[in-house]
Amino acid sequence: MRLKLLLGLTVIVPLLSPVAMAGDKTSDVRVVNQVDVSITNPVVPVEVTNPDSPGRGERYLYSQTTNFSYGTFSRTVNVTPTIPAGKRLVLQKVSIHTLLSDDQAVMEAKVSVGGVQVGWVPQEFQAAGTQQRHYGGSIDLNVSVFEGESISIFVFRNGDLGDASVNFFTIALIGYLVD
Question: The whole model's pTM is what?
């Protein structure tokens, strides 16, 4: 019995409430006591900039190839970019392309700035040639690098075989300088 009463009230109550329905007439709204507003200060243009916008700074691009010599499992590349006084480098992206022989693979690739690790660069298998296997990857960082700081790229492989001419990696650093 309670269920029937509850269902009945659910249907009847909305029908009785005073709610505007679609198709109702609208009334005009009139504004009285209008106030005049005047601006007495002259217009002064204000320059609005985003200091972290890539379009605002000088572009920074760096590339380097490093060989794995026979008997080495890992290599570290240290780059100390030239950063003018009063500026900083915003390191946006790091890319690494690795070529390895003898069925070797990249085990780890990481980036550090000023001695602090800021990310791993995932290395995905890309293709296998007759002598080499290709791996590649990149990471978006947006990390600040200040004057005198080094960027370190560490790459570790799972073997120490092969000639340096077919076992190497190329790094690309992409960013921009800002004030």
Answer: 0.68
Instruction: 10-19: list long-range contacts, CB under 8 Å, 24+ apart.
Output: none
Q: In the predicted model, what is the mean pLDDT of residues 14-31?
A: 59
Distance CA 148, CA 57 (A): 19
Task: Quote the CA–CA distance of 50 and 41 in Å, as a whole number.
Answer: 27
Beta strand 124-128 with 116-120: parallel, antiparallel or unpaired? unpaired
Instruction: Determine if residue 52 is left, alpha or beta; phi over 0 gives left, psi from -120 to 50 gives alpha, anything else beta.
Output: alpha
* CATH architecture of residue range(s) 57-178: Sandwich (2.60)
Cα–Cα distance list, 158 to 109, 112, 144, 148, 166 (Å): 12, 21, 32, 33, 15
For residue 68, the number of C-alpha atoms closer than 13 Å in the C-beta half-sphere is 29
- Summary count for the chain: helices (H), strands (E): 1, 9
